[in-house]
Design a protein that fits this description.
This protein is of the alpha/beta class and about 325 residues long. It folds into 3 domains: about 35 residues, no CATH class; about 120 residues, Elongation Factor Tu (Ef-tu), domain 3, CATH 2.40.30; about 160 residues, Rossmann fold (3-Layer(aba) Sandwich). Helices cover about 30% and strands about 30% of the residues. It is built from 8 helices and 17 strands. The longest helix is centred in the N-terminal third of the chain and has 30 residues. The protein is globular and about 95 Å long. About 30% of the residues are buried.
Length: about 325
């Protein structure tokens, strides 16, 4: 093997020996430039090759995707994974926006729609998109339950497809702790920028955690890529019971992987008597927000609180607490 390599190197050695000392130096310099250029071009090509292909979401045309996988998260909640056209495809949804899911009733032919936010990340999850769906079954308060969630519950792997429209929503997380908000025409139009480089607080109720997960994943991905903002992410998550907490493993892992940077706190309407519960019990209060989330009194001006939850939570708990804590609209983004 060694003799074979020497045979290959002989012409190169002979060529170098035929050069003067100055010519050898020039040749070495040219060779170095060639190697550096080749390395640079190779890295660019690799980056281009690794960039995901975004779906053509234009807000008007439906994108139809087949169901790939179902993961049961709780008694009434599932993770639905839909397959994208290729393994290099990403869903292509801007962080902070959502899509409209549309299904057709097989019996009546009637179309039903409902907004959902994926919990997967375009940058981290290629070839598929994940949605967490809480199924609202018929009950005394709502005899028909949730039409779309029940239809999604009936979708079969490898057999059925679902239609998606988007992107929707006027709020975007644009990176490094900054958000943009599209203003209405009545507000003068244009785009408003919100600064949350110091801290982002989040209040979620029930399935309202899904847009928060999407945003947190992107913020933490930025950290892995050298990003520094926001410096702190605090999440206050309300549910009926401990069993109703969606994606708890994911949230707890965020806190473990980024200690001091991510803080998660739960509150439930009623705690289980069978096991210890170290978090809060009851509706979200002024004291909970003051203790676990940023406020003007302790966080200055560079913070935002993102909120997504049922209207009663907003009307009777969150909004009154914000008023008492003097947290103005300029510091609140509602999904």
């Amino acid at each position: 093997m060694e003799s074979f390599i020497l045979q290959l190197l002989k012409p190169i050695i002979a060529f170098l020996e035929s050069l003067t000392l100055d010519e050898q130096k020039k040749f070495a310099a040219l060779l170095s430039i060639f190697v550096v250029s080749l390395t640079f071009l190779t890295s660019i090509f690799a980056k281009k090759k690794s960039n995901p292909i975004a779906l053509p979401l234009d807000g008007k045309t439906a994108i139809r995707l087949p169901l790939e996988r179902i993961v049961q998260l709780s008694k009434d909640t599932k993770l639905l994974r839909f397959t994208l056209p290729t393994k290099e495809h990403a869903f292509g949804l801007p962080t902070g926006s959502h899509v409209m899911v549309q299904l057709t009733d097989a019996k009546t032919g009637e179309k039903h729609m409902r907004p959902y936010t994926p919990v997967s990340s375009d940058a981290l999850d290629k070839g598929h998109v994940d949605f967490v769906v809480k199924v609202y079954f018929p009950n005394k308060q709502f005899p028909e339950g949730g039409k779309v969630s029940q239809m999604l519950d009936a979708v079969k792997v490898g057999e059925d497809t679902v239609e998606f429209f988007g992107p929707l929503g006027g709020k975007r997380y644009v990176g490094e702790g900054e958000f943009t908000v599209k203003k209405l025409k009545s507000q003068g139009g244009g785009v408003e920028r919100r600064d949350a480089r110091d801290e982002v607080g989040m209040i979620a109720g029930g399935s309202g955690i899904t847009p928060m997960l999407q945003i947190v994943r992107e913020m933490l991905r930025e950290t892995g890529a050298g990003g520094q903002s926001p410096k702190k992410i605090s999440i206050l998550y309300a549910n009926k019971s401990e069993e109703d907490i969606l994606c708890r493993d994911t949230l707890d892992n965020f806190e473990k992987q980024f200690p001091g940077r991510v803080k998660v706190w739960y509150t439930v309407d009623a705690a289980s008597k069978k096991k210890e519960w170290k978090y809060d019990v009851g509706f979200i209060t002024k004291e909970m927000i003051e203790k676990h989330l940023p406020t003007p009194a302790k966080s200055g001006d560079r913070f935002q609180i993102l909120v997504c939850g049922p209207p009663p939570m907003m009307k009777f708990a969150v909004n009154p607490a914000f008023e008492k804590l003097e947290i103005g609209k300029e510091h609140v983004l509602t999904w």
